[in-house]
Amino acid sequence: MFRLFDMLGRSTAMRTLDDALRAAGLHPLLVPEPVKLTVIQLHKTHAAPAAQGGGITDAAQLLAYCILRACECIEDAKERPLKTLGKFPSDRV
Length: 93
Prior knowledge:
The chain has 93 residues and is mostly helical. The chain has one domain. The protein has helices spanning 2-8, 12-23, 33-46, 55-79. The longest helix has 25 residues, at 55-79. It is globular.
């Protein structure tokens, strides 16, 4: 059954989203397929009729920002020692 999907290829919406993610600076393989399908479905459901064609790039930019920003926060947390995260000045305690 999965070979059938390989023969048909990816949908146009999925390829458009992948291209938009690449343009936003995020490789499409870093985004799970269910997340991509959810973005496409939400876009089809809630986007204005005038924005149906070009609005997917806005959604891809927002998704890329969220993922890349989350990665930056994780990297920042790895660099800072845990002792400094909850430290208050002694005059406030």
